[in-house]
Design a protein that fits this description.
Layout lengths: L6 E5 L9 E5 L4 H13 L41 H10 L1
Antiparallel strand pairs: 1-2
Length: about 90
């Protein structure tokens, strides 16, 4: 995992109501960000932004399914208490 770096979202929207972000490394220079933004906007039509734009992809690749016993009774689990010092770190991750 040594090659994983922090990223930042780069908004390449064309229509105001649709959010289209790509993530790039935070270590990119201003010139690289400008180049990536231009290329992403120029070739945005080759990216898929939703599952509806990928009609020939097998849905089992992107669908997650949890198999449960249909006769089982649902049980609500109690929340676990977290140490107050860890709350801020957890909230920033989530």
């Amino acid at each position: 995992m040594g090659n994983i770096t922090a990223t930042m979202p780069l908004d390449i929207f064309v229509k105001v109501e649709i959010v289209e972000n790509i993530n790039i490394g935070v270590s990119c220079s201003i010139d690289e960000i400008r180049i990536y933004t231009h290329l992403s906007k120029e070739f945005r039509d080759i990216f898929s932004w939703s599952y509806e734009e990928m009609p020939y992809i097998d849905p089992t690749i992107v669908v997650h399914e949890i198999l449960t016993n249909p006769g089982a009774k649902a049980i609500r689990q109690w929340l676990c208490l977290v140490h107050p010092r860890k709350v801020a770190a957890i909230e920033s991750e989530v």
